[in-house]
Design goal:
Rossmann fold, 6-stranded parallel β-sheet, binds NADP nicotinamide-adenine-dinucleotide phosphate
């Protein structure tokens, strides 16, 4: 049987993976939640929108005769990833997570480690600062309790409703970002503190390197816990996994 893959996407890494899968002649579909207004063009056929929880995903896997699921969602897309673990177990479809190792602090970094968004909000209970709040559009309402800060928000799309704090600046940009560019941005806006999810990977690392160069502290939000699952960190490893789970690779 030829593989019929489902890639759970929404990240730069997922798009890169899909390019390789397509160039290897593998068939499959990439799935998006539908949060971004102008999604990047994909090399595989795509579907958009939630599946309807675990039951909806089980039904989708069966109807579409999916042979392998590759969860390439963002490390903070915890609900989708948990649903994938449960649905694949129920449907008997092999699952792998294509992810990236978390960032680690290096020598001169000043990181305040917090376990989740609520803890990051508590860590912001302090005198007014200029905060680069790099947590994504959906998480902005959580930060309402600290309106004393000036927030610099870099978002893929403009916010659909005004952020819940009075003093903010929105920069709409998808990246990729560079350390030099982010240093210039932080200097231009007078950023004194960075709040970041520990996304890992290279795409979002520029602000972390820039904060280091400028000696700025970073409130680093740890990743949500995931149920046990196989994780892979390279496209090659995912290709090997597909090849070794009972189907032939390529055309
Ligand atoms: P989430 O909280 O884990 O997911 C909430 C619900 O959205 C899921 O239960 C599912 O709905 C639907 N969903 C999420 N990802 C989907 C996908 N790839 N295909 C189909 N349905 C999906 O996810 P999130 O944090 O809102 O992230 C949404 C998307 O944005 C993900 O694709 C993720 O890769 C991307 N993203 C997230 C972040 C972040 O920081 N969270 C950052 C960059 C990109 P049903 O239960 O109805 O199936």
């Amino acid at each position: 049987m030829r593989p019929n893959l489902l890639v759970l996407g929404g990240t730069t890494e997922a798009t890169q993976l899909c390019r390789t899968l397509a160039s290897e002649g593998l068939a499959g579909t990439v799935s998006f939640a539908g949060r971004v207004e102008r999604p990047v063009r994909q090399p595989l056929p795509q579907r958009v929108g939630g599946f309807g929880g675990v039951p909806g995903l089980v039904e989708y896997l069966r109807q579409e005769a999916i042979t392998h699921v590759i969860d390439a969602t963002h490390p903070f897309a915890a609900q989708m990833s948990r649903n994938a673990v449960l649905a694949c177990a129920e449907a008997g479809v092999p699952l792998v997570a294509f992810t990236r190792a978390p960032w680690e602090p290096v020598n001169s970094d000043t990181w305040v480690h917090v376990s989740d968004t609520a803890s990051a909000v508590r860590a912001l209970q302090r005198a007014a600062e200029t905060v680069l709040l790099a947590v994504g559009r959906q998480s902005l309402p959580d930060f309402a309790p600290n309106p004393q800060h000036r927030y610099i928000l870099r978002l893929v799309d403009p916010p659909s409703t005004p952020p819940p704090f009075p003093d903010y600046e929105v920069i709409v940009s998808r990246g990729p970002f560079t350390e030099g560019g982010d240093r210039a941005l932080m200097a231009e806006y007078g950023v004194t503190l960075v709040v970041s999810k520990n996304s890992g990977g290279t795409g979002a690392y520029a602000k972390i390197a820039a904060a280091r160069a400028l000696n700025l502290p970073v409130i680093m939000i740890a990743r949500p816990h995931m149920p046990p699952r196989d994780e892979m960190f390279s496209v090659e490893a995912v290709l090997q996994w597909i090849a070794h789970t009972g189907t032939e690779l390529g055309v």
